Amino acid sequence: MNYDAVTNKLIILFVMEKMEMPLTENSIIEICSVKNNWINYMDCLDLLYQLSEAKLIYKTECKEGEMRYNLTFEGRDCLSYFYKKVPAELRDEITEYSKANRLSIKQSQEYYANYTDADDGSYLVTLRIYESLISSPLFEIQIKAPTRQSAEEACKKWRQSAPNFYEYIYENLVSTD
Question: Which residues are CB-neighbours of 42 under 8 A, at least 6 positions away?
Answer without folding.
Answer: none
